[in-house]
Amino acid sequence: MVTKKITTLSEFILDKQKDFPFATGDLSALLGDIALAAKLINRKVNKAGLVDILGDAGSNNIHGEEVKKLDVFAHEQMTNCLRVSGECAGIASEESDGYLVFDDDRSKKAKYVVCYDPLDGSSNIDVNISIGTIFAIYRKVNPEGVCDELDFLQAGNKLVAAGYVIYGSSTMLVYTTGNNNVNGFTLDPSIGEFCLSHPNIRIPEKGGIYSVNESYWNTFSIGVNNFIRYCKTPDKASNRPYNSRYIGTLVSDFHRNLIKGGIFMYPATTSHPDGKLRLLYECNPMAFLAENAGGMAMNGKKRILDIVPTELHQRVPLFTGSKDMVEKAMEFVLEDELILI
Ligand code: AHG
């Protein structure tokens, strides 16, 4: 019997590090810390259905400890893993108002800061639908001293690495360090390792899926609605109508479209002219992944990665996925002036 060689995430990261002769290993270690946090979150996510049996969030468990909400737990695991690692100078999380500086001696000298959404799609937890963790890694603007807000307010085009973990029918970690290379690793629970399962992911240029919350139809711009109508209109030559698929967890919708080809949209609405999704924690990391997989990510007028953030929790409209579909959506969207940027 021939046994196929398994490549674990740690082996893969170390192997990639060899391509950079001056690499110190800090980024590799940082990615390893995030993978560890993901495994801890995954363990908890798998037990989420037992919360009603073992105790509701906010109540005490059998050890007398408070049962935490899963998104708070995920935030704490990410923060703790990065804090003790010494490779991270500070974090900004969707779950906290401001950024957090790690000011111990090692972290102060660290080169990187990390932004994350610890548990994306948290409203789907109660109904057993896939959720995720999204992360983005930047180099500190000023390598000396503790980090400050400017380190987090960098445009996405300055990203060093980004990725997500999807807690789905299996648990996967997908990440990129740029160079048009995106790789996916599936967690093998029997050995507790992420193993390379999706090398060099390329998003199909012509997708066949559109993902948008159509219940906001009345509040979208005319351009967005015209694009949605285009997606539904039969046309043999371009394989329309496209399939409509919307999970309501960005990570899951994005992941499906990344593998199968499609567009994900969270456009501006009349009541939310900047949409719902956060630039730092959701849109930038997904845009970096999309572009490095051969896709696109726009806010309706410009490249997501070129937006210079002005605040930590800034929201932006998002159109991302297969290149042909995003380009087509932009043609329709640009016809209309409702999108405010
Ligand atoms: P939350 O984590 O609060 O559940 O938000 C999830 C985000 C994102 O993952 C998803 O694409 C979007 O919100 C769904 O929002 P709508 O319910 O408005 O469609």
Compact overview of the structure:
This protein has 341 residues and is α+β, with helices and mostly antiparallel strands.
List the helices and strands and how they pair.
Blueprint: H1 9-17, H2 26-46, H3 51-54, H4 70-85, E1 88-93, E2 99-101, H5 105-108, E3 112-120, E4 131-139, H6 149-152, E5 159-167, E6 171-176, E7 182-188, E8 193-198, E9 209-211, H7 222-232, E10 243-244, H8 250-260, E11 263-266, H9 279-292, E12 296-298, E13 318-321, H10 323-334
Parallel strand pairs: 1-3, 9-10, 9-11
Antiparallel strand pairs: 1-2, 3-4, 4-5, 5-6, 6-7, 7-8, 11-13, 12-13
2,5-anhydro-1,6-di-O-phosphono-D-glucitol binds at residues 120-123, 213, 248-250, 266, 276.
Give a verbal description of the structure.
- The protein has 341 residues and is α+β, with helices and mostly antiparallel strands.
- The protein has two domains: 190 residues, 2-Layer Sandwich (Fructose-1,6-Bisphosphatase, Chain A, domain 1); 132 residues, 3-Layer(aba) Sandwich (D-Maltodextrin-Binding Protein, domain 2).
- Helices cover 31% and strands 21% of the residues.
- The protein has ten helices and 13 strands.
- The strands form two sheets. Strands 2-1-3-4-5-6-7-8 form an eight-stranded mixed beta sheet, sandwiched between helices. Strands 10-9-11-13-12 form a five-stranded mixed beta sheet, with helices on both faces.
- Helix 7 crosses helix 10.
- The longest helix has 21 residues.
- It starts with 8 loop residues before the first helix and ends in a 7-residue tail after the last helix.
- The structure holds 2,5-anhydro-1,6-di-O-phosphono-D-glucitol.
- 2,5-anhydro-1,6-di-O-phosphono-D-glucitol binds next to loops.
